């Protein structure tokens, strides 16, 4: 008979105890979200290694954090999937004019063919992340095997490295949504004259334009005079050359 995670007991989480059957699995059950942005819709991929020791995996039960109300499990061809519901103490607005009176407390995947040693699989859940940046979501998971089970329910204490735990629970921390930080747009710098500096900037731009126009404008009169004198010199030089040629 399948045990639910609630049967494993809250004591496993608070006291750091674990339930292990025929030996711990050599690789962790992990969760990889496609986004950790608070309030976003996310796909959570649970990586499932082979079973307890060398024993093949038969069932994976994923407990859903209380902050999450609805979950849509992805259908996996090699597994049957079941949602375990739980009544809510108070109804929750569903955002569409209705209310939720129960939540998905657990998602259970049962292998149609036990997952053997040397192989792994991925189970995907779709859900809306809580709008609580900085909060850590924990998904205690029990991996049942043909012989024994591995309860991935250990949560690191403050200051403890989760990698030091034998059977750590899959978890991740929510991050702030993009655009929640202070406005990075540059503010005009006041110059103390009551102006925000935009008039000075406009005046400077206008002055630059005038200078550019002057540079591209008609040449001064002195330049034209020099050109005329140069042309006259060429004409006189040509005439002198013609007169100096010996006659045949």
Automatic annotation (TrEMBL):
Name of the protein:
DUF1775 domain-containing protein
What's the short name of a Pfam family annotated to this entry?
A: DUF1775
- This protein's source sits in the domain of life called Bacteria
Instruction: Write out the ranges of the annotated region (Disordered).
Output: 175-205
Keyword Hydrolase assigned to the entry: answer is: no
The YncI copper-binding domain is annotated at 28-174
Alphabetically list the UniProt keywords.
Membrane, Signal, Transmembrane, Transmembrane helix
How far does the signal peptide extend, from start to end residue?
1-27
Residues that span the membrane, as ranges: 221-242
Cross-referenced CDD domains, in alphabetical order? Answer: YcnI_like
Give the organism's phylogenetic lineage. Bacteria, Bacillati, Actinomycetota, Actinomycetes, Micrococcales
Return the InterPro entries for the record.
YcnI-copper_dom, YcnI-like_sf
